[in-house]
Design brief:
Elements: H1 18-21, E1 23-28, H2 36-47, E2 53-59, E3 62-67, H3 70-78, E4 82-84, E5 87-93, E6 107-115, H4 124-132, E7 137-141, E8 153-161, E9 169-172, E10 182-189, E11 225-226, E12 236-238, H5 245-255, E13 259-261, E14 267-269
Parallel strand pairs: 9-14, 10-11
Antiparallel strand pairs: 1-3, 1-5, 2-3, 4-5, 6-8, 6-10, 7-8, 7-12, 9-10, 13-14
Length: about 270
């Protein structure tokens, strides 16, 4: 642009990317501005880091967290999501060359429990099929023989799109013709307050602009929330994000299972076999 300079700036002291590797940026989904002192106190109490960390208010409800140990930063990301005063805080790492304003806070990873499956359906393959319904599947609990019977539910880590209503579950078609469809429910670990009217995170019923109060019940409630499970010896498999043969196979399986809509946008997924 005429009259505007373009500058090349130095990278700063230390190895390239060192400062970014020690930082996280958090956005608290709350309509009211939150105080940095309160955020610092909550995080200091909840995170139990090996070394001290600092919190810098960046803009309204966006905070920069700078750690001294990269292990602390990675552990905080791994153990998320986190709530600040009952509001979800979405954390994102900094990447080289990115400004805070470049970060996308529209997705957040959650561990999701899948309850109600018949025992023969509690497999590693079905966990992946269900997890990919959310969009991006990050990890699944697994086992050497492929059957996930270490708990009474399957468990997957997925990215949840925050602008959409939380999926509540799906209907499972019975293998035998005389059986009724069976409801399979989701529960979200460490889920903060959300709107029981529309099912979205970031506001409550009083501030909902998606559903009128006069409309019938949406079916959302506290049953979607659950605490984090205790640590166990059940192995966790992180999912590779590049396309490979296994992903193609899962996509093919998904394409053979139709999705219908019930009265309240509940996905109906048919697992036959």
């Amino acid at each position: 642009m005429d009259g505007v300079e373009i500058l090349d700036l130095e990278e700063g002291l230390g190895e390239s990317g060192e400062i970014n590797n020690l930082c996280l940026v958090g956005k608290v989904l709350n309509s009211k501005p939150l105080n940095v002192v309160a955020i610092t106190n909550i995080c200091t109490s909840a995170w139990k880091t090996r070394a001290p960390f600092s919190v810098v208010p960046w803009s309204t409800n966006i905070f920069l967290f700078r750690f001294e140990e990269i292990e602390d930063k990675n552990e905080i990301l791994k153990e998320g999501p986190w709530s600040m005063m009952n509001s979800l805080m979405v954390l994102q790492p900094l990447t080289e060359g990115a400004a805070v304003s470049d970060l996308d806070f529209s997705y957040c990873p959650f561990w999701v429990q899948i309850h109600g499956l018949p025992v023969e359906k509690m497999t590693r393959t079905n966990a992946e099929i269900i997890g990919r319904r959310f969009g991006k599947l990050l990890a699944v609990e697994t086992s050497p023989d492929g059957f996930l019977l270490g708990r009474s539910f399957l468990r997957v880590r997925v990215e949840v799109k925050l602008s959409d209503p939380l999926p509540k579950g799906f209907w499972l078609r019975r293998k035998f013709e005389s059986g009724n469809d069976h409801w399979i429910s989701y529960r979200y670990e460490k889920l903060s307050d959300f709107c029981y009217a529309c099912g979205r995170i970031g506001h409550d019923n009083r501030g909902c602009k998606f559903v009128q109060r006069s409309e019938e019940s949406s079916g959302y409630g506290p049953e979607l929330r659950t605490g984090r499970v205790r640590k166990s010896a059940i192995p966790i498999e992180e999912i590779k994000q590049q396309v490979d043969a296994a992903e193609i196979r899962v996509a093919q399986l998904l394409s053979k299972r139709p999705v219908n809509q019930s009265n309240k946008d509940d996905a109906r997924v048919w697992f036959v076999g």
